Structure formats: C-alpha cells, structure tokens
Amino acid sequence: MQIGQMQILMGSANPELARAICDFIGIAPCHVTLKRFPDQEVFVKIDENIRGKDVFIVQPTCPPANDNLMELLIMIDAARRASAQRITAVLPFYGYARQDRKDQPRVPITAKLVANLITIAGANRILTMDLHAPQIQGFFDIPVDHLYASTVFFDYLKKFRDEKLVVISPDVGGIKMVNAYADMLGTDFGFVAKRRKDAANVEAFSMVGDVKGKSVLLVDDLTESAGTLAAAAEILKKNGATRVRAAVSHAVLNESGYERIKTGFLDELITTNSTPIDCRGLPITVLSVAPLLGEAMLRINNHQSVTSLFKIKGF
Asked: 194 an active-site residue?
C-alpha cells in the first residue's frame, strides 16, 4: 500500500497534534464536517472520497472524555460505511484506562468496555501511546501498536545527565518504568509510597532511595490534579532533594492541577502534546509526539515494523 492511499481524519479533541502529524507526513488532512445538533448529538460527514483508502482517525479521548469518545466512535462508523479499506484509531491518550480491573464489588471494567466499543464501531487497528496499564492491549481483539513517549523524553533529558540525578517513581506501581529510565540515564532509582485519601488527594508517607543533595526526576504516565506529584515532591525535598522535575506522558491537567503547579513544588513539568495543554506561564515544557506517531502511521501504511521506534538515539 502506498502513501497516496492514506487519509488522515482529525477529530476535535486535539486538532493541533493531528495537523502536526499531517505536516510531518506531508499530506493534507481529509476534510470532515463535525457539528452538534441542538440536543448536542454529534454529526459527522466525511467530505472526501475514502473508498478503498487506509484511514487514520486521530482522536485522543481526553476531557471531555465522553464527548470525544462518542465523536471517535461516530467517525469510525462513518469511515466504515464510506468503504474505507482499513481504519486505524490513533489514540495518543486512551481515556478510561485506570478502570482496568474490578478492585471493589459491583464496579465495571470500563477500559475493556471502551475497547469493545471501538472494535464494534469498525476500527481494524489501534495506535496508542503509554497506556496506563500495558495489559489493556489484551482488551482489544484487533492489533494494537503501543508506543512509548520515553523515546521523545530521552532526547530532551540528555542535557541533565551531568547532574547528580536520581529517577524516582511517585508510586510503587511505576517501578518498572522508572527502572527503564534509570538504565538509559545511567542513574540510581527509587520510589515513593503513597496513600490515596480520595480521587484528587494523596499522602506520601515513605520513600526508598537516596536523594540528598541530588536532582530528582519523577516519572509517571498520567497526571490530572498533580496530587501524586505534589505529595512526592514534598517528601523528596524534605529528604534533601535540591531540584525536582517530572516527566509525565499525559498531562490532562484540571484546575486543581494548575493551581498545585503554580505553588512551585516542581521546578519543571515535562510532558507531551498527546492532549491539549495550556502552559499558562508555568514551568511546563511540552514535547511533540507528532514525529513519533507520524512515523508509526507511515510504517503501518506501508506494512513495515514499528519495533525500531522503541530504540533510543544517543544513549
């Protein structure tokens, strides 16, 4: 399949990223009409012929998650009924990923439900990045290409290798990710143990690792209220950390998150444009994942392996 048969559709969740992907690939996005009926139902019309085309729909399911998810499903259905040859749902951020198991009675496994919805709507393939739980790939009955933002972060983090750096996970569940970063940066690593009070507030009560007189890099996949990062930074600075940065794949920040960052507990938040983010003059550095996603889309289009995209350059 040649690139001339590729079509990229962009939803309203993150059009800036979709345009950046199109610029990287060198094609114009397919024109799509997206609007709402008076009762807020979603209307989609694909304004170009996509019959027999390899269609990629770029639509992270970030807030408002329900609206963006529904828009994605309707766009997939429209592409399927327009006789697209193959439909790849490109979800730089996969919402509902935290509800990936039954951790208490009578609760849903919403990550699986969303996977079913996307599959039944007509998607043939998924391209996503830094799932909250890697096992979510198994919730799909279609191929999933799971990319990692670490390849983008490492290029930026090179300049900090000369510092007395230590990589820390803000919770016990992120040790595997932190270990990978520590290996590539050639540093020690550790973790902070936390206790969650409610959905927006956590308490860090102990840590493992030596941070006294060192610069700390916190590594996580997702932050919304920045409560976990704030709690971790507090205990790290109490234990002698001189500087605390955070590398977070998806910064889906709400007002509480912005207010916490404004207090200055972080010297820098490093994140990606997987979801729209307003820096608001705060110490937030946004790295683009458009080249990473665009290269993966080109390889999928040409039936090539995406394995080499996991390799880190310069380390």
From this structure: yes
Number of other CB atoms surrounding residue 84 within 10 Å: 24
Dihedral over alpha carbons 95, 260, 249, 213 (to 10 degrees): -150
Give me the half-sphere count of Cα atoms (radius 13 Å) on the Cβ side of residue 68. 25
pTM: 0.92
Does pLDDT of 195 surpass 70? no
Rounded to whole angstroms, the Cα distance separating 173 from 140 reads 23
pLDDT at 268: 96
Boundaries of domain holding 242: 150-287
Active site residue: 194, 262, 311, 313, which one? 194
Q: Residue 189 domain-assigned?
A: yes
Asked if residue 276 and residue 155 are part of one domain, the reply reads yes
Whether residues 120 and 240 share a domain: the answer is no
Q: How many CB atoms lie within 10 A of CB 278?
A: 10
Report the candidate in 272, 224, 226 with the shortest Cα–Cα distance to residue 247. Answer: 272
Q: In this structure, are 110 and 215 located in the same domain?
A: no
